[in-house]
Amino acid sequence: MTFAATVLTLYPEMFPGPLGTSLAGRALAEGRWSLDTVQIRDFATDRHRSVDDTPAGGGAGMVLKADVLAAAVDHARILQPHAPVLAMSPRGSPLTQARVRQLAQGPGITILCGRFEGFDERIFEGREVEPVSIGDYILSGGEMGALVLLDACIRLLPGVMGAASSGDEESFESGLLEYPHYTRPVDWEGRTIPEVLRSGDHARIAAWRKQRAETDTRLRRPDLWERYEGARVKSPSGARQRTRDED
After folding, report:
1. For the whole model, what pTM was predicted?
2. What residues are paired with 245 via a beta bridge?
3. Residues 45-74: what's their mean pLDDT?
4. Which of 53, 77, 166, 200 has the fewest CB atoms within 10 Å of its CB?
């Protein structure tokens, strides 16, 4: 079944963009996923085709109108009645690899791209729209975030990556950052590939990789490490195991 992507945007010309090249582009050409863009401005009702207005309560910038957004979302629901609708917003929940895997296993996705100061909040109350964020920073609009989200999903579709196991040991799949990688030449500017990776001892290599993944996560992403440690101290039944400090 083809993974169908619908993007609601004021700038449909931004798509497929980089998704038209490399793995995603080849998969698009092969029909493993499809892309449909919808111009939000087509759902404006006044003669100026207005999609935004000034913020209620005052303030800088403009806000995308709930009635226009709702009409666009309703149209997308007709195109893809079973696809979840996600809105790219810095106020949304952080996008995780687990959520990406859920989305990639579904029939497709509809993405609503924001601009200006963002969305009239009532769109999330009046329609089933999930706000998501790709990071703690601000972009000019949701289109770049939509490209990121789509790329994350597309690479997980069957047949897109060369081997089905290619994504199994990457960062975030196990709650950790991925271990570091090396390749030839063995010696580069006096820096050599760690001996254990040249040993041929697969058990030692696996142990080294796990240790490095844990160390790098603890040092570089203490937020991930805290969640990982919390998961490790739970028993299979879900009850928290006693730690040494509690004995």
Report:
1. 0.87
2. none
3. 96
4. 200
